[in-house]
Amino acid sequence: MAEIIFIVTTVFFSYAFFYVFKRIKSRFQSHQVDNKSESKLEIDNGKFQTHYDNLKVARNAPDSVIKVAYKVLCQTYHPDRFQGNKMEAERIMKIINRSYSELIDPDKRAKHDAWIKEQKM
Questions:
Q1: What is the CATH code of the structural domain delimited by 2-120?
Q2: What is the pTM of this model?
Q3: How confident is the model at residue 8 (pLDDT cuts 50, 70, 90)?
Q4: CA angle 19-6-68, nearest 5°?
Q5: Cβ–Cβ < 8 Å for 33, 84
Q6: Where are the domains of the chain?
Q7: Out of 30, 33, 54, 89, which could bridge 79 as a Cys pair, Cβ 3.0 to 4.6 Å?
Q8: What is the pLDDT of residue 94?
Q9: Taking every annotated instance into account, which residue ranges of this chain make up the domain J (predicted)?
Q10: Burial of residue 89, with CB atoms counted within 10 A of its CB: 0-12 exposed, 13-18 middle, 19 or more buried
């Protein structure tokens, strides 16, 4: 009986992860950047941009969602796979990597959240 429960649980979580990954991937594929358009990850003049915005995740997103979003963005914008300007892809990857490293570390994430609160006051 325990083996059946384990198998069902494993299948359920595998399906749930696949479903979330598929939704996030389709969401990010709609944000392809060509040579003429501005990147969605570009920091606009005077616009408040956070690491959460760069990875397109909510502020309360768990680490698992951040990791999936990072993986999807890396697959989309990696300079070896990117269909557009390679320099633009490198610039975007620097933003993605910096944002991921800040949000995946609990201490850095807490500091970033505190910084966001300061900016909104």
A1: 1.10.287.110
A2: 0.61
A3: low
A4: 30
A5: yes
A6: 2-120
A7: 89
A8: 92
A9: 50-116
A10: buried
